[in-house]
């Protein structure tokens, strides 16, 4: 959608109330930055609320939330961001629902641009906005930041084109769409946005990418944070696989495919122009192999050890 088309829609923007949904688990420092960014939105103040769902944090989330007049705080003790989002949805007032995460920093026109694209054509079921990852020092990312910004980025336009979903770090929809297709699968620790997007697509709704509705997202910069994310992603993919397979043989075949050595990855690393020089390529390879090892351990724990997926 062009800037002129968005401007035209924005000039005729109806008085739609928006509810922003943010689950949080022990991330009060970055939550405060997120809420400050949401307080500075160009969207009319009287037309949006921010629903923060404390997912059984040990940190003082209430103290952070109480600093912002538009924040409505609730709590969900069951672990998982999707069950937390569903809890938040039970108290929203908005016709439009906007999802982001506690570690995201929405641009000041994020709500305005996202709602404009949502209204830009008929039968839109979801709008996925741009997510820009950034390192603490953009000119000198550490190996963890380098790996995440390339291997675990969020190319929303590609997600929509290739797999009919957008991630909940930057997602807009109508409340009526949620009423029609249902809420998120509360049993999933990861991948619930993908499954929900597939349901939206299956119902015949349009899915639109909004490059101008942007949030910034810090790249994880420590091995512990990346390890937790890898465990959560592996568990989410395993849970989704379990829901779709028809037999133990299919599950075994999926495990064999998962355990295949990443030979193609080595080739892509050494030909990737985003990695500058042998040092970065080597650093990226080392982190990739560590992530691969953690993911393999987690998958074997789940499938052969009878484990339960973890939030990480």
How would you portray this structure in words?
The chain is α/β, with parallel strands linked by helices. The protein folds into 2 domains: 3-218, Alpha-Beta Complex (Spore Coat Polysaccharide Biosynthesis Protein SpsA, Chain A), CATH 3.90.550; 223-303, no CATH class. Helix content is 47%, strand content 18%. It contains 13 helices and 8 strands. Helix 10 packs across helix 13. The radius of gyration is 20 Å and the shape is globular. The model has no long low-confidence stretch (mean pLDDT 91).
Question: Topology, pairings included?
Answer:
Blueprint: H1 3-11, E1 18-24, H2 28-39, E2 48-54, H3 61-65, E3 71-75, H4 81-89, E4 96-100, E5 105-106, H5 110-118, E6 124-134, H6 143-151, H7 156-163, E7 170-174, H8 175-181, H9 192-202, E8 206-218, H10 223-244, H11 248-258, H12 263-271, H13 277-303
Strand order of the largest sheet: 3-2-1-4-7-6-8-5
- Write out the CATH superfamily name of the largest domain: Spore Coat Polysaccharide Biosynthesis Protein SpsA, Chain A
N-to-C SSE series? HEHEHEHEEHEHHEHHEHHHH
Largest sheet: 8 strands, mixed
Shape descriptor: globular
Mean pLDDT: 91
Number of domains: 2
Q: What is the second-level CATH architecture of the largest domain?
A: Alpha-Beta Complex
Q: How many beta strands in the DSSP annotation? A: 8
Cα Rg: 20 Å
Query: What percentage of the residues does DSSP assign to strands (E)?
Result: 15-25%
* Name of the level-1 CATH class of the largest domain: Alpha Beta
Structural class: alpha/beta
Indicate the CATH topology of the largest domain. Answer: Spore Coat Polysaccharide Biosynthesis Protein SpsA, Chain A
Helix proportion range? 40-55%
């Amino acid at each position: 959608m062009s800037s002129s088309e968005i401007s035209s829609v924005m000039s005729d923007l109806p008085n739609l109330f928006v509810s922003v949904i943010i689950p949080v688990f022990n991330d009060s420092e970055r939550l405060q930055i997120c809420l400050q960014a949401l307080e500075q939105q160009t969207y009319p103040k009287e037309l949006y609320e921010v629903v923060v769902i404390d997912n059984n944090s040990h940190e003082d989330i209430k103290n952070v939330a109480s600093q912002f007049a538009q924040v409505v705080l609730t709590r969900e003790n069951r672990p998982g961001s999707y069950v937390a989002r569903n809890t938040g949805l039970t108290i929203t007032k908005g016709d439009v629902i906007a999802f982001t995460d506690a570690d995201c920093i929405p641009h000041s026109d994020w709500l305005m641009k996202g709602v404009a694209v949502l209204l830009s054509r008929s039968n839109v079921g979801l709008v996925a906005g741009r997510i820009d990852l950034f390192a603490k020092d953009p000119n000198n990312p550490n190996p963890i930041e380098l790996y995440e910004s390339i291997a675990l980025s969020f190319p929303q336009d590609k997600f929509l084109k290739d797999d009919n979903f957008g991630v909940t770090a930057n997602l807009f929809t109508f409340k009526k769409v949620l009423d029609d297709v249902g809420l998120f699968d509360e049993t999933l620790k990861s991948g619930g946005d993908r499954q929900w997007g597939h349901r939206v697509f299956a119902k015949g709704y349009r899915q639109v990418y909004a490059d101008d509705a942007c949030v910034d997202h810090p790249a994880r910069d420590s091995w512990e944070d990346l390890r937790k994310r890898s465990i959560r992603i592996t568990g989410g993919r395993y849970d989704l696989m379990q829901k779709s397979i028809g037999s133990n043989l299919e599950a075994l075949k999926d495990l064999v495919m998962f355990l295949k050595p990443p030979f193609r990855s080595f080739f892509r690393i050494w030909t990737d122009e985003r990695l500058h020089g042998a040092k970065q390529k080597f650093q990226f390879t080392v982190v990739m192999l560590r992530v691969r090892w953690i993911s393999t351990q987690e998958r074997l724990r789940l499938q052969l050890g009878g484990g339960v997926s973890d939030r990480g």
